[in-house]
Design brief:
The protein has about 100 residues and is mainly alpha-helical. Helix content is about 35%, strand content about 0%. The protein has four helices and no strands. It is flat, with a radius of gyration of 18 Å.
Length: about 100
């Protein structure tokens, strides 16, 4: 969410990368793109010798406001808009109102 929800001019990607690098060391194993229950279980991780497990679930989904017009063409949920702009450099419209 730091890279998708916050523009790089407000939170430079170098700062995010340095913070992540400071957290990840020989005592921490980062596993990504894995599904709990399919790729691993918490019990299996403890059996493999891990002393602690932190599960961070992706939550990249906008919450609809249930207001008139939010389903019209050209109206984008916040996370969808921010992902396209921040990850792919795509501006979904010429003029944008937030």
């Amino acid at each position: 969410m730091l890279t998708t929800g916050i523009p790089s001019y407000r939170l430079p990607r170098e700062v995010i990368n340095k913070e992540i690098e400071a957290l990840i060391d020989k005592n921490i194993t980062l596993k990504t793109n894995s599904v709990l229950g399919r790729d691993f279980t918490v019990d299996e991780l403890f059996e493999q010798g891990y002393n602690a497990v932190f599960l961070a679930m992706g939550a990249h989904k906008s919450k609809l406001l249930n207001i008139e017009g939010e389903d019209l063409d050209g109206v984008y949920p916040a996370i969808e808009f921010l992902k396209e702009f921040n990850l792919h450099g795509k501006n979904l419209a010429k003029d944008v109102l937030v």
